[in-house]
Amino acid sequence: MSADLEAALDARGERVRVEPDADWLAANADDVRIIVTGGQTGAPRELVEALPNLGLIAINGVGFDKVDIAHAAARGVTVTNTPGVLTDDVADLAIGLVIGLLRDFPRADAHVRSGAWTNGDLPLARKVTGRRFGIVGLGRIGSAIADRLEAFGPVAYSGRTRKPVDLPFHLDAASLAAASDVLIVAAAASAETRHLIDARVLEALGPGGVLVNVARGSVVDEDALVAAIAERRIAGAALDVFADEPNVPPVLVDSDRTMLTPHIASATVETRAAMAALVLDNIDAFLAGRPLPTPIPPP
């Protein structure tokens, strides 16, 4: 949480930043009406069950896979998130990762900083324009990525359903991967999409293909990805998210065919301010008994 968001929460009530334990809950559980959390932290079922007067879980982020929405709804708890306001930043980062990986920005930057340039040039990188791009998940963020990518080359997509767009649709991620040079993961994390990008998909992507993930670490089978990188069964990967953040497998860290960022897709001053404002809008509506701007409907 930003300092500004925490200050705004303080102005609305008593804020406690805490990892609740049994003693704290015994003394305070009845007083808690609102949980404010991040998408990567969520709210465990046992915590929700321990707060009898909880009414709102306000997620400062778009992902809600760390909250059991159906369980919360059954207990009369509404869950909100911050969709829309971070779409542009996530899509922008996806394009940056595509270009940075194919043009080998990390190694180029290190080549200049280390002084190695005085000893010779880098090996040639790979062209971006003209590549075939596949997007797994054509929601808000996937659609924004597609809009940006159409300037570079043909774009196709896969997802649960066909969208009303003029782009080739593939029934599954493996079929899309086989038709792509660059596979970009933008699908929401859920039980259904866990390890959606598995060994079969990576095999279909092949030794000339690269993977870009700006969704959630759980959508990619990280063990399969590590093996594919180590055995050179794909050309490379650009990743903003990981299975066990902030822990990243050494193979991915050590490889010269990966580009890694620390889950920064929405990490701009402007977007974090917009996210905080939407969190507060939901809290204010809840406290005033008004309809909430961005409730997540139960399944």
UniProtKB/TrEMBL annotation:
The keyword NAD applies. Keywords: NAD, NADP, Oxidoreductase. Residues 95-265 form the D-isomer specific 2-hydroxyacid dehydrogenase NAD-binding domain. One of its GO terms (cellular component) is cytosol. It comes from the Bacteria. This is Lactate dehydrogenase-like 2-hydroxyacid dehydrogenase. The keyword GTP-binding does not apply. Coiled coil: none annotated. It comes from Sphingomonas yantingensis. InterPro entries: D-isomer_2-hydroxyacid_DH, D-isomer_2_OHA_DH_cat_dom, D-isomer_DH_NAD-bd, NAD(P)-bd_dom_sf. The lineage of its organism: Bacteria, Pseudomonadati, Pseudomonadota, Alphaproteobacteria, Sphingomonadales. Belongs to the D-isomer specific 2-hydroxyacid dehydrogenase family. Residues 17-295 form the D-isomer specific 2-hydroxyacid dehydrogenase catalytic domain. CDD domains: HPPR. One of its GO terms (molecular function) is hydroxypyruvate reductase [NAD(P)H] activity.
